[in-house]
C-alpha cells in the first residue's frame, strides 16, 4: 500500500492564491508515488475531524497564510510539513519557507520553491533592447487593488515600450484598452510569457520567484507586510528596487531608467546568477520519501 499524504490549503481575495498554486503543483508531483488526498478551503473543524480519524502513519501537509496551533495534533502516527511559518515547533514537524531568503535554516529559500516543470526548458537570455516587453502582476488576486493604479499611471505610449502583459485576477478586471496591452486571466503557459518578457513590475510573492527564475530585471511594488520585508531583501541583493504603492511615481521613474541604461539593465540581469534555479522539483520529493523511509513518526 502506498504511504498516505493529506494536503490542505486555502485561498481567497485577501489571502491570495499562491498557497493554492503551490499545493496543486505539490499534489501533482506527489500523487505519482504516494496515496495523496487534496483538500481546499476546509475549515478547522473539518481538518481536526479528518486528522483524528487517521489510524495509519500519515504525512499531513498544511499550506496556509495563518495557522492555529491546535490543528497540530499530538498523535504518534502523524508527521507534518507546514509552509511559510516558523512559530509552531514540534518533534514531528518540519517548517518549509521557500519565500524566506534568509539562510538561517536549511528549509528556507528557493531550493524549496516548486516551479512549473516546463521552466526547465531552454530560455532566452535577457538582453538590453531598443523596445521592451513588460510583464505586470500583483499576485493572483491583487489583494490591495494595485493593478489599476499601476496601469493608469504607466505611460503606455512611451516609444521604449513594445508590449505590456498584465496578469489579472478575473475577466474585465482592468477596463483600460490599448493596442500594446494584453490581459491574461489564466496564464496556462507562464513560461512563454516570461520567456519573452524584458522587464517586470511585480509584487513580492510567488510570482516574484518565477520572474527571478528568468533573470528578468524587476520593480517590486507591494503593501503586504511580509512582502515589504522580502522586497527590501531583493533590493539589498541588488536584484530590483522596492516601492510601496504610494511611491508609484518613483517606481515608474525606475522603469524609465531601466529602459534607458544598458549597463544598469545588464547588471540587474547578472546579479541573479543561479539564485533561483535550485529546485528541479526534487527537494520536496526527496524529503517526503526520506520521511517515510526513516519512519520519523
Give a description of the structure.
With 297 residues, this protein is an alpha/beta fold. It folds into two domains: 127 residues, Rossmann fold (3-Layer(aba) Sandwich), CATH 3.40.50; 153 residues, Glycogen Phosphorylase B (Rossmann fold), CATH 3.40.50. Helices cover 30% and strands 19% of the residues. The protein has nine helices and eleven strands. The strands form two sheets. Strands 8-7-6-9-10-11 form a six-stranded parallel β-sheet, with helices on both faces. A five-stranded parallel β-sheet has the order 2-1-3-4-5, covered by helices on one side. The chain starts with a strand and ends with a helix. The mean pLDDT is 91.
CATH fold descriptor of the largest domain: Rossmann fold
Query: Mean pLDDT across all residues, rounded?
Result: 91
The number of helices is 9
For the sheet with most strands, the description reads: 6 strands, parallel
Reading the helices and strands in chain order gives: EHEHEEEEHEEHEHEHEHHH
Strand arrangement across the biggest beta sheet:
8-7-6-9-10-11
C-alpha termini separation: 17 Å
Strand elements, count: 11
Tell me, what is the CATH class of the largest domain? Alpha Beta
> What global shape is seen?
elongated
Estimated helix fraction: 25-40%
Q: Whole-number radius of gyration? A: 20 Å
What structural class should be given to the helix and strand makeup?
alpha/beta
- Provide the domain count: 2
The fraction of residues assigned to DSSP E strands is: 15-25%
What's the CATH superfamily of the largest domain, by name?
Answer: Glycogen Phosphorylase B
CATH architecture group name of the largest domain: 3-Layer(aba) Sandwich
**Unreliable parts:** none
Amino acid at each position: 500500500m502506498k504511504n498516505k499524504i493529506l494536503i490542505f490549503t486555502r485561498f481567497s481575495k485577501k489571502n491570495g492564491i499562491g498557497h493554492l498554486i503551490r499545493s496543486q503543483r505539490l499534489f501533482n508531483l506527489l500523487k505519482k508515488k504516494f496515496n495523496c488526498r487534496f483538500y481546499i478551503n476546509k475549515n478547522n473543524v473539518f481538518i481536526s475531524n479528518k486528522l483524528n480519524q487517521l489510524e495509519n502513519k500519515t504525512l499531513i501537509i498544511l499550506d496556509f497564510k495563518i495557522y492555529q496551533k491546535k490543528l497540530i495534533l499530538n498523535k504518534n502516527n502523524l508527521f507534518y510539513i507546514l509552509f511559510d511559518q516558523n512559530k509552531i515547533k514540534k518533534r514531528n514537524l518540519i517548517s518549509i519557507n521557500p519565500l524566506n531568503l534568509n539562510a538561517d535554516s536549511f528549509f528556507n529559500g528557493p531550493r524549496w520553491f516548486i516551479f512549473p516543470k516546463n521552466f526547465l526548458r531552454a530560455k532566452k537570455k535577457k538582453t538590453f533592447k531598443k523596445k521592451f516587453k513588460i510583464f505586470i502582476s500583483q499576485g493572483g488576486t491583487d489583494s490591495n487593488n494595485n493593478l489599476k493604479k499601476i496601469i493608469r499611471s504607466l505611460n503606455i505610449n512611451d516609444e521604449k515600450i513594445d508590449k505590456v502583459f498584465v496578469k489579472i485576477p478575473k475577466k474585465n478586471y482592468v477596463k483600460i484598452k490599448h493596442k500594446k496591452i494584453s490581459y491574461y486571466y489564466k496564464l496556462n503557459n507562464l513560461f512563454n510569457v516570461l520567456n519573452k518578457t524584458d522587464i517586470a513590475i511585480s509584487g513580492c510573492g510567488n510570482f516574484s520567484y518565477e520572474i527571478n527564475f528568468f533573470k528578468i530585471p524587476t520593480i517590486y511594488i507591494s503593501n503586504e507586510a511580509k512582502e515589504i520585508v522580502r522586497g527590501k531583501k531583493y533590493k539589498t541583493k541588488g536584484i530590483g528596487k522596492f516601492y510601496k504603492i504610494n511611491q508609484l511615481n518613483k517606481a515608474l521613474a525606475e522603469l524609465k531608467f531601466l529602459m534607458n541604461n544598458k549597463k544598469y539593465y545588464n547588471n540587474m540581469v547578472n546579479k541573479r546568477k543561479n539564485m533561483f534555479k535550485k529546485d528541479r522539483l526534487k527537494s520536496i520529493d526527496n524529503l517526503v520519501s526520506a520521511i517515510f523511509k526513516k519512519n520519523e513518526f
